[in-house]
Amino acid sequence: MATDTRSRDTRPPATEAAVSEDREFSFSTDDYAYLRAMLKEKTGIELGPTKQNMVYARLAKRLRKLGFKTFRDYIEFIGTPAGVDELGTTLNALTTNLTKFFRENHHFEHLGTAALQEVRARAVSQGRRLRIWSAGCSSGEEPHSIAITLLQSMPDIKQWDAKVLATDIDTEMVRRGSEGVYPAASQEGIPADIARKYFEPHGADKVRVTQDARSLITFKHLNLIGNWPMKGPFDAIFCRNVVIYFDKDTQRVLFERYANLLVPGGFLYIGHSENLFGITERFKLLGRNIHRKIA
């Protein structure tokens, strides 16, 4: 999937003109092409040709902080052994993180009713084990919403071996998610009784998800196109608004791997702008981007 480019220098040529002469930092079209190719190789995420201004905005602060004058200098730095840590920061900056609590709430409604009913039915013969994966968890709102849904829907959850795995390629997002601290305004749209029960004040204008919800979740750094150390099986996987950044071939591989990790009849929740048409035949659409594993 990812190719090895260590044997050749793919940095942009020094002759390419800058896109905009009035910018603080010179940023050529070849500079952008290099960063696009690097992101695709390292993460599988494919930026479109219209995202150059976004990349400039996200990385300009790093150039400013480190004292570089051009993107070419910055690119050369992250390609050296001394720039390995900065390369991770670059990848973090270029991955998109936009989420909220109970986003696309119908998924959590389905999880708390139909999905958990089937989990309970399986428990009769297979034991009280529950596993859910939030793949591409960003800053943690999604897995915390999952945990709150479990607490609300399963009064006997302490009698279960219940765990939520939350993973993301962005190490800073993983750190923030594990802390469970958010602006107080992030509770907007959450029913008042849920907000009172599962969020507590945490300093000025901030709240923290309560310990009973946080204790259900394990946050881990994971590159979806790399090795997956977990074995599953999972009862449900949330992978929402993630695969839109991958090409079709990468999507096919990802959904094959998801299917392999789900229990028979397990559920897959994807984003409202995503679909599995022409990608995989291992899932059946139940409606509103809720899919069941059929093979």
Automatic annotation (TrEMBL):
Residues 1-20 are annotated as: Disordered. This is Chemotaxis protein methyltransferase. GO terms for molecular function: methyltransferase activity. The lineage of its organism: Bacteria, Pseudomonadati, Pseudomonadota, Alphaproteobacteria, Rhodospirillales. Residues 1-11 have a biased composition (Basic and acidic residues). Residues 20-295 form the CheR-type methyltransferase domain. It catalyses: L-glutamyl-[protein] + S-adenosyl-L-methionine = [protein]-L-glutamate 5-O-methyl ester + S-adenosyl-L-homocysteine. It comes from the Bacteria. Its EC number is 2.1.1.80. Pfam families: CheR, CheR_N. Keywords: Methyltransferase, S-adenosyl-L-methionine, Transferase. InterPro entries: Bact_Chemotaxis_MeTrfase, Chemotaxis_MeTrfase_CheR, CheR_C, CheR_MeTrfase, CheR_N, CheR_N_sf, SAM-dependent_MTases_sf. GO terms for biological process: methylation. The keyword Methyltransferase applies. Methylation of the membrane-bound methyl-accepting chemotaxis proteins (MCP) to form gamma-glutamyl methyl ester residues in MCP. The keyword Methyltransferase applies.
